[in-house]
Specification:
Shape of chain A: globular
Number of helices of chain A: 4
Strand content of chain A: 35-45%
Oligomer: homodimer
Largest sheet of chain A: 13 strands, antiparallel
Number of strands of chain A: 16
Structural class of chain A: mainly beta
Distance between the termini of chain A: 43 Å
Helix content of chain A: 10-25%
Chain lengths: ~270, ~270
C-alpha cells in the first residue's frame, strides 16, 4: 500500500543533487501550502543526497510565499562524516528561492550514550475524548486540506476552542496520519508544524507566517498516536516563538521544535 | 575607545560578499575557539551584506573543527525584503567549510505589534553574590581565554559548582563583556554560547561539541548585566538540547537560544 504522504512528497532526481517536486493543494491551510509539508519535500531531497537516514536537526527559513505547481530543490552537501552529514538546500519556484534549509543528518540506530529524559509530558485525555478539529473558532476555513491528511486532536479544555483568550498560549493534543501511515523520522517535522498556532490562546491572530522553523528529531517514533505540546511564551513587537515537543505512544520524546513567527492581526 | 570584541570580530571585505577574518585564541575554551565567537565573525559578515541591522534568527551548523588563523566567510544573500532579509554563509578555513550559517535579519526599531511576555525570569541574587568563575570543578582549564573577555557569574547554589550531579541541568547567572562594552544585537549570540554547559548538572561530561545552535534576538538590550538561564531537558543516546534565555538589566527578554550538542564522557 502506498500512503498519501509518500506519494505527495516524492522528489525526482535531476542529477547533481538537484530534484524536481510538485506542490499540491492537498496540504493547504487556507490558501497556503503548510510549511511542514514543504519542508518534507526538502527533507526527501536531503535524504536522497546524504548518507545518513535521520534529520537530527533541520532549520528552514521561509523567504517568500510558495506557489502550487512545480518546484526545484537544489541540495549542496557540506560534509559527510562517519556519524553526521550536513547539507544546505534551496527550494526554488519560477526561478526564485522560496525556502532555505540547512540540516544535519545522522543515524539514530547507531547513536549511543547517556539517556536522561525530563519526565514532563503533560497529562492528557485520550484522543477519543479530544476535540477532533476546531471549526467555528478557528480562523482557517474548516475545509483546510491539511486536516484531512493529518488527524490532529486538541485537549478539549483548550481555552481558545471555547473562544477564550485564556492567557495560556499552549496547545496539547494528539496527531497521526489520517490514512494510518506510521510516523518516521522523515515525517516528524511535518507534525512539528501541523498543530494550530499556540498564540491563539493569547492574541486573536489572523495569520502567523513562519520566519524560521527548527526541528530536532531525537528518536524513532513507535507506532501509534503522537502526543504534542506547543507553547508560545514571548510575543514581542509582532514576533513570537513557538516551542513544540512530540512524544510517541510509548511516552518517549521523539522531536523538539522551535519557530519564530510573525503575528498578523485581523 | 575600541573594545576587544569589536577589534577581534572585524572582517575585511574581499568583494562579492566574501570576507576575510582572523581566528585568535583569545576566545578559547580549552583548546577550541568558542562557537559563539566564531558565529560572531559570521554575523559581522552577514551584517555587512544585508540591509537590516539585527539578526532576528540565526542558525549555525558546526561541521568541522575550526583552526586558529585566517578564515574566509562567503555570504550568499537570499532575499532582501522591506522588513526582513536573509542569507546563508559558509565559514571556510584551508579550503574546507567549518561552519554553515543561515540567518534572517530585520530591524527591531521598526518592528511593531502586540507584546505579551511570559514573566518567568528566575529570581537570582545580584552578580556580586554569584560565583565569579568555576575553577576546580569545571573540566576546562581555569585559564579559559573566553572567561577573561566575557564575565560570567553563576548562581552560587548551582549543584555542579559543588561537585554535585543534582538532577537539574540548569545554569542561572549573569554575563557582560569584561571591558564594559555594551551588549548589542550583534553580540547577543556570543552570550547565548558563553555559559558553561547546563548538562553538567546531570552528567559529568568531558566535552559537549555543538552540532547546531539557533539564536533568536528578540529585543535591543539595555545597558548593564544580562541575566541568563540555560537548561538541558533531554539527554538521549548521546545527544542533548540546551535551551537558553537572556534578559537585559530592565528584565526584558532579549534573546532565546537552543542548541543540539553531542555528549562526550571523560
Amino acid at each position: 500500500m502506498t500512503f498519501t504522504f509518500d506519494q505527495e512528497v516524492t522528489v525526482r532526481p535531476l542529477g547533481d543533487d538537484r530534484f524536481e517536486a510538485e506542490v499540491t493543494d492537498h496540504w493547504n491551510i487556507g490558501d497556503n501550502p503548510n510549511g511542514g509539508y514543504l519542508l518534507s519535500l526538502v527533507i526527501r531531497a536531503l535524504a536522497a543526497s546524504l548518507p545518513h537516514p535521520d534529520p537530527l536537526t533541520i532549520t528552514a527559513h521561509y523567504l517568500r510565499r510558495p506557489e502550487l505547481g512545480p518546484a526545484t530543490i537544489a541540495v549542496q552537501p557540506l560534509r559527510a562524516g562517519r556519524n553526521l552529514s550536513s547539507a544546505t538546500a534551496g527550494f526554488v519556484q519560477a526561478g526564485t528561492e522560496r525556502i532555505r534549509v540547512v540540516a544535519t543528518f545522522g543515524d539514530l540506530d547507531r547513536s549511543s550514550g547517556p539517556t536522561e529524559l525530563r519526565q514532563d509530558r503533560p497529562d492528557l485525555v485520550p484522543p477519543e475524548q479530544c476535540a477532533k478539529r476546531p471549526e467555528g473558532f478557528d480562523p482557517f476555513p474548516p475545509a483546510a486540506e491539511l486536516l484531512s491528511r493529518v488527524d490532529v486532536r486538541l485537549d478539549p479544555t483548550t481555552g481558545w476552542l471555547q473562544g477564550e483568550q485564556s492567557g495560556l498560549a499552549r496547545n496539547d493534543g494528539w496527531a497521526r496520519f489520517s490514512d494510518g501511515r506510521p510516523v518516521d523520522t522523515l515525517s516528524l517535522p511535518l507534525f512539528a508544524d501541523a498543530f494550530p498556532p499556540a498564540v491563539y490562546g493569547l492574541v486573536p491572530a489572523a495569520w502567523v507566517p513562519t520566519v524560521e522553523l527548527t526541528v530536532h528529531v531525537r528518536a524513532r517514533p513507535a507506532e501509534g498516536w503522537l502526543q504534542g505540546s506547543f507553547e508560545t511564551r514571548y510575543v514581542q513587537n509582532g514576533y513570537h516563538d513557538e516551542d513544540g515537543r512530540l512524544w510517541d505512544s510509548t511516552g518517549r520524546l521523539v522531536a523538539q521544535s522551535r519557530q519564530l513567527a510573525v503575528l498578523l492581526l485581523p
